[in-house]
Every structure is written in structure tokens, then in C-alpha cells.
Amino acid sequence: MYAYTDFDRQFVHARAAQFRDQLERHLAGQLPDDDFRALRLQNGWYIQRHAPMLRIAVPYGVLSSRQLRQLARIAREYDRGYGHFTTRQNLQFNWIPLPQSADVMDLLADVDMHGIQTSGNCIRNITSDVTAGVAADELIDPRPYAEVLRQWSTLHPEFAFLPRKFKIAISGAKEDRAAIGWHDIGLQLRRNEAGEVGFQVFVGGGMGRTPIVGQEINPFVPWQHILLYLEAIVRTYNRFGRRDNMYKARIKILVKAEGQAYFDAVNAEYQAILNDDAGSHEQIIPEAELARVAASFVEPQGVTPVPGADIFEGASPAYRRWLERNVHAHRVSGYRSVTLSLKRLGLPPGDITDAQMDAAADLSDRYSHGELRVSHDQNLLLPWVRESDLPALYEAAKAATFATPNIGLLTDMIVCPGGDFCALANARSIPVAAEITERFQDLDELWDIGDIDLHISGCINSCGHHHSGHIGVLGVDKDGSEWYQITLGGSDGSTLSGAAVPGKVIGPSFAADEAADAVEAVIATYRRERQAGERFLQTVRRIGLDAFKQATNAIRRTTAAQH
């Protein structure tokens, strides 16, 4: 992972000291709420439904065991003993008292972490493939490029106050595991016919009130010029984005409205930056700078290819299930990456206790060279596991509650914090997720149902990515009551799901006591209608939505009068 330089460490410590001064002036009554609000948001501090919430950046999802232990300490000493991993590869704390927030920022800076630009109308945490650098299908390692982009975008003076928040994702593998089509900018690393490395660039994706999949704006930007090209994209958006209406301020609305005219404006701006901007050529990435950053992303000392083995030989049924679902192919012979599932009874998806953080850090030190990853779907991953260590890791993960063999199955759902915590939410998402999880605990049944992406959001902001779920659940408010809209057929752009596309609504929303019943009816319809070997999404696309509408309408009680 990236090794902080003296400059990097001075930077985050100076930022923490700056925040402490701002906080002390605010608590002393010298800095009004409105003025302090903008400053705390720039460091990831929200005031949510019940208490302050801190969002901590985990750049492109890479964590060290040392950092995770520090997060465990913060959870134990300053929060209520747990944290929550999000779909943007961040970690959130929900109960830290504001007067102690500067102490937490110092603790984060001590382990090269911060909350800078995890909030506000700026370029947010840049995300990537959770298996970047170890994936068997990887073409080009995206991590060095993601780190260059992180450094470029952090406190960029021109983009500190954009029309709305801005999200970038980057992938370097054959399969898109970063959902790049659903981002303001999606970057796919590739090689041209001459073997040169560059980026296929997509722009204008996003969820929320108006789900739109990003469009290709340029099939190949040389990697040396990517900062200049992104500068052109964001500068054009900054100039023409809708600041008069926050619901129309995202870049996706500008791209949809202007189409080719926006693309032309970006490409003209790109040429103008190259030809006319003073100092623009200093933003052409030198080979030496990429090499400096890439030096942090070499294989850990001691990783050596060894002949691969049949990891299933002699496996018990329970161990085999874990191998099939939680263990993944690796580019280095004799190694695997392993998902530690954070989806289990008793805790909301993505939540992790301080003790579990410490346990995951221990597993990382013992089996993965002290490195972990945070996944887009709210799990942890160990990227450097020897095949010979898999049996021991399984037993240790099982003891730490991380070995649920459900990765990619129904209970491996994406869920936002919803109305239990978020001030923006219209409905709670955690109770719906808990009820569904309780109903589908039979592993034989989960295996029979097969691969399904279930995504749940508590409001239209779509932090639970319900639009891209094979089954999406959206919480809505009706006269102060919680209701839930069901969508089917969404895709994140992965090989399993096909091209990114938003799901379609299957009818009027369901009351809170009907939401889990509706999901169960959808699953039952699939099991009845599927053909041999057919996955859920294939059945939905083959038979359409009517059969699912009829099945879900049949379970209505509170809403029966609507039909």
C-alpha cells in the first residue's frame, strides 16, 4: 500500500491541528454554527439524526492492520464500540461527541488517515476494485493511478466548491468490480494497439433521484495526460453545472441535457489546457513520478509463486462452501484472496465491532502481510493468503464470525444506515435487512437461490445503491410513515450482471410490514419460473416483471385497498 512521505504526514497532521483550532473557536462561541458547518464537513464531520457522524477515507479501499487497530481503538474509546463500512470504501462512526472530534482527528493522522473530502461538494474518496493488484483477470494495476488521482484531487483549489459532490472510480481488470458506470467519472485502464497504457473515460453516471449510467467520452486518454483530461471534465462541469437547483446539480444532469455539446466543450477545454494554461505541462505525469508511487504497490516481501494445489481436496461440506464463496482466484500462483463476510445475524450489513476490527487486523497480520481491503459491498478482504494457510484461516475466521459462506448470495446485501442514523433518510433500512436475513438463514436454500445482488437504500440519495441491485429496495416517506419501493433487474456492470442498468419499479410501494414479504415473494416467483441453470437476473429478463408484480401484490395487507 502507499507509503506516506514526510510531506504527507505533515499535511494530515497540519489539517488535524487546523480542525482543532476551528473546533475550539466554535465551542467557545467565536465561530458560528453556519461557518463551522462548512469547515467540519470538509473534514468528514456530519451532524446526523442523533449525534455527530465521522466519515473516514480509505483510499481505493486499502487498509493496513495498524490502521484497523487504530479504528478499533477509536470505536472503543470514543464511539459505542463499532463502526460501519460503506459502499464508497469508507468507514463511518456514528456516536463520537463533537468536543472529542479533534482528538480523533489526531489519532487518525497518527496512522496516515483522515476524513478530508469525504463530504461536501468536492471530489470524494476515489474507489477501485477490491482485488486491485491481486485479481487473476487484472490487465493493469489501478492502484498507482488511483493514488496519483487522490493526491491531485485532495484540496484542489479549483474544485473545492463544485455544484455537487463528485465521485470517481477506476478499474484495471477485465471484469468491472468497481461499478464505474455508476460514477460521475468512470475510468477503465486499457492498452491500445501499440501496447500503450491509457484510460477509457466514462462521464455522467450516478444514482439518486435520476439514475443514469455514464457514457463514454473518450475511448483512450494516455495515462500521462489523465490529470489534464479530468481537469477539463471537472472544470467544464464546475462552469456550467446547475447551481440554482441542487436536484439538478450533479454532472449526470448536465451530460444528459447537453450530450455531445458537453463532450465537445470538455475536449475543447482539454486542448486549451494543453496549449494555453500556464504550467499545464507540469500536470503531465512523468514516468518517474508514476514509478515513485508504483514502488509502494509491489508484492509484499515473502510473496513467492508456488505451484497451485487443489484446495477442495478432502474439504468438508462446510469448508467447501466457504472455499466456493469467500475464496477468490489470484494472479500469483499458490495464493488466494479471501473475503471476511460482514453479513451475519445480529449486526447490520457493513457494521463491525471494535473486537472484530482487532480480530480482522490479527488475521491480516497472520495470513495477509498486514494488508486488508474494504469492498464496495461492505465486506473486508485479505489479498495475500497462501493456499496452504486456507484451512487455518477458515477456522480462525469462523471463530471471529467472519466465515459466513454467503458472498454473492441473498444475505450478502448492500444496506445504507437509513433512518436509524441518517438525517436525510425517509425510512429505516436496517430492520428490513435484518428481517430478510433472518428468513434466509438456511444455507441449502441460499445455495439453491444462487447469485443475487440485494441492495437497500433508506432514501432517494441511493447510498445503498438500490438502482443497481438485481432486487432493489428504496425507503420512501408517505405522510410520516415508512414505505418501500421494489425494483428488479438492476446491474452494477459486473460479468454476472451485464452492462450497468437501473432496475425497474414493480408497482406501488409496500408498507413497512410488507417489505420483507415482498422480497420473499419475488424469490419464490424466481424459484418457480426459472429454467435449469438460470440465475435470478436471467429469469427476470426472460419473463419480464408481470409475474413478480402479481406475486408481490398478492402479499399486500396494509396496501391491499390499492389493488
From TrEMBL:
Name the Pfam families on file: NIR_SIR (PF01077), NIR_SIR_ferr (PF03460)
- Which key words tag this protein in UniProt? 4Fe-4S, Heme, Iron, Iron-sulfur, Metal-binding, Oxidoreductase
Q: Where is the Nitrite/Sulfite reductase ferredoxin-like domain?
A: 53-110, 344-399
Which domain of life does the protein's organism represent? Answer: Bacteria
The UniProt entry, under Gene3D superfamilies, shows: 3.90.480.20, Sulfite Reductase Hemoprotein, domain 1
UniProt-listed InterPro entries = NIR_SIR_4Fe-4S (IPR051329), NiRdtase/SiRdtase_haem-b_fer (IPR005117), Nit/Sulf_reduc_fer-like_dom_sf (IPR036136), NO2/SO3_Rdtase_4Fe4S_dom (IPR006067), NO2/SO3_Rdtase_4Fe4S_sf (IPR045854)
Asked if the record carries the keyword Iron, the reply is yes
Q: Does the keyword Iron apply?
A: yes
Domain (Nitrite/sulphite reductase 4Fe-4S) ranges? 119-263, 454-552
GO terms (molecular function) for this protein are: 4 iron, 4 sulfur cluster binding; heme binding; metal ion binding; oxidoreductase activity
Protein's UniProt name = Nitrite reductase
